[in-house]
Write a structure and sequence with these properties.
Number of helices of chain B: 7
Helix content of chain B: over 70%
Shape of chain B: globular
Order of helices and strands of chain B: HHHEHHHH
Radius of gyration of chain A: 29 Å
Largest interface: A-B, 80 and 85 residues
Structural class of chain B: mainly alpha
Distance between the termini of chain A: 52 Å
Largest sheet of chain A: 4 strands, mixed
Oligomer: heterodimer
Number of helices of chain A: 8
Largest sheet of chain B: none
Strand content of chain A: 15-25%
Radius of gyration of chain B: 18 Å
Number of strands of chain A: 9
Number of strands of chain B: 1
């Protein structure tokens, strides 16, 4: 077995899963092979970081919600468990076959809605409750079976998701973050996108660029605030956008996943978070840009990564609706020159923010 | 103890672990909550059939991973709401943390960096490294949870550890400077 550069062996060794003989050989090899020794140390160090991540705790209500959901599901289940379900199934099969033989069933009438999630929004037949009444009517050659959940006394509400309806564009004012002249260091150019080719290859820049590639530490693990605390005011919408520069930057290592996804937007609703994200970005890039003022009593900031996972995003428009802001963006494969890390959109306060991809 | 009480007991005992796993897999509190709910719903639907041949957490973790994989396939549309603890009703609150300024910020930033680097791994590798290095599950348990061979677990884990090291360490070096 090849021991050199064998990460699987290193990984097994780390877990103490190698037999003594092989472990001994590997240890002896690592004493003389710097490359393997460093790889092992890196893997062990990364593992150490991972294992120190503290577990997250669920919200207080989650257990209750789960049990309530299960209770609702039990009420909504079409075929309850046990012998009764067999009897009901058999009855349905007999009814179905008899209708087929009488030629009164049209194929397009056969639709069943098992759960609220699977129910199409314009469902002709309502979701089914185990105790719900059923109606059967005949019109011409069609047979329509309607199962009416609403007739059950304690039928739970089915969550209804509104489709995204685009309103006309809200007024926007554009601006950009300015880099102070006295801080025109190499790092400041990262943010402004004004780096010369010769300056691009330093390790510090690569690291800073990689930091850009990651989202800011401000959390986007997000909380839906109660609607009553959100004042919806009709003031004009202001957009601040970091302008894309002409000079190229080295593209960061792709940290993208291999499935289709939307950019990781960050929503900031208060000065504390705004200050924090700004500070962190400055610190990561060794900058000291002044914090742009935002009136968080009326506005919020939505930051969309300019590039992420090998893709480039550009915000085209923000659409303001009654209870949401829809941010429309375009996507293309990452090309040079690389734009600044985030496109900042200061918009009116709404409980929900949606991203909408335009073709 | 009847099945209903047994299930309720299981929810109480296992839910925090399931939620934590879901969060590590998806990296989002809201989605983790949805995955947890769906996991228990599915577990309930097949609870009658559970014969206890595998441990309960293996059974639940397997469902959690499957639900997560399904969300990866389905997820093409995201809705964001904001982080705003002061105005929160508490219902969607992430766990309370002591608001000590700098150390706390660094610690939570480190967690986020690790999470972000985890998110950048291919899903199969990500699941394995979470189960092994965060959840401390044995190779055999991981094989059972992810329904793959032991050899696959070993090779993917090695690959995942190497990839993660390559991604995490540069950020940590920058942070610690």
């Amino acid at each position: 077995m090849n021991i050199h550069n064998n990460t699987e062996l290193l990984s097994l060794y780390m877990d103490g899963k190698l037999d003594k003989g092989l472990a001994g050989k590997l240890e002896a090899h690592m004493k003389i092979c710097r490359e393997c020794r460093e790889t092992f140390q890196k893997m062990a160090q990364a593992r150490c970081y991972i294992s120190t991540v503290e577990p997250v705790e669920p919200t207080l209500n989650l257990e209750k919600e789960i049990l309530e959901n299960i209770h609702s599901e039990r009420n909504l289940s079409l075929f309850p468990s046990g012998k009764f379900s067999l009897a009901l199934g058999a009855l349905a099969a007999v009814l179905f076959v008899s209708l087929l033989f009488t030629g009164k069933f049209k194929k397009e009438d056969i639709r069943l809605a098992m759960t609220p999630e699977e129910t199409p929004m314009e469902e002709e037949y309502k979701s089914v409750d185990s105790g719900a009444t059923t109606e059967q009517t005949e019109k011409g050659d069609d047979v329509k079976i309607t199962i009416d959940r609403d007739k059950t006394p304690d039928a739970p509400e089915i969550p209804h998701q509104e489709p995204v309806l685009l309103a006309k564009s809200a007024p926007t004012v554009s601006g950009k973050f300015e880099v102070p002249a006295d801080k025109a260091s190499v790092n400041s150019k990262i943010m402004a996108g004004q780096l010369d080719e010769s300056e691009m290859e330093t390790p510090e820049l690569k690291k800073a660029e990689e930091i850009n590639e990651m989202e800011s530490p401000v959390s986007r693990e997000l909380i839906k605030p109660p609607e009553k605390t959100r004042k919806e005011k009709s003031s004009s919408l202001m957009e601040i956008r970091s302008e894309r520069q002409d000079k190229p930057l080295p593209s960061a290592a792709s940290v993208g996943t291999d499935f289709d996804k939307l950019p990781s937007a960050i929503v900031i609703r208060d000065n504390k978070d705004w200050n924090r994200i700004w500070m962190t970005q400055n610190a990561a890039q060794n900058l000291s840009l002044k914090l742009p003022e935002v009136d968080f009593s009326r506005k919020m900031v939505v930051a969309i990564p300019s590039r992420e996972a090998g893709r480039e995003y550009s915000v085209v428009n923000t659409v303001e609706e009654k209870d949401r802001i829809v941010i429309q963006f375009k996507e293309q494969s990452l090309q040079k020159p690389v734009p600044p890390p985030y496109q900042i959109n200061v918009v009116n306060q709404k409980p929900t923010v949606e991203l909408q991809k335009l073709d | 103890m009847d099945k209903k009480s047994e299930f309720q007991y299981m929810v109480k005992a296992e839910m925090p672990k399931v939620y934590n796993l879901a969060y590590r897999l998806c990296g989002d509190f809201h989605q983790a909550k949805d995955i947890t709910q769906e996991t228990f719903l599915k577990a309930y639907q097949s609870f009658e059939k559970f014969e206890g041949r595998s441990q309960m957490f293996t059974y639940l973790y397997r469902i959690t991973c499957n639900v997560w994989k399904n969300t990866l396939r389905k997820k093409r549309f995201k809705t964001f709401t904001s982080y705003s603890p002061e105005n929160s009703s508490g219902e969607f609150d992430p766990p309370a943390r002591d608001p000590s300024p700098y150390d706390e910020m660094q610690r939570s930033d480190r967690c986020r960096i690790v999470q972000k680097c985890l998110d950048s791994l291919p899903p199969a590798e990500k699941a394995i490294i979470i189960l092994r290095d965060m959840e401390d599950r044995s190779y055999e348990e991981i094989s059972s949870i992810l329904n793959c061979r032991l050899g696959t677990v070993k090779s993917r884990l090695a690959r995942a550890r190497k990839s993660l090291a390559d991604r995490v360490l540069p950020f940590m070096e920058v942070m610690e400077k």
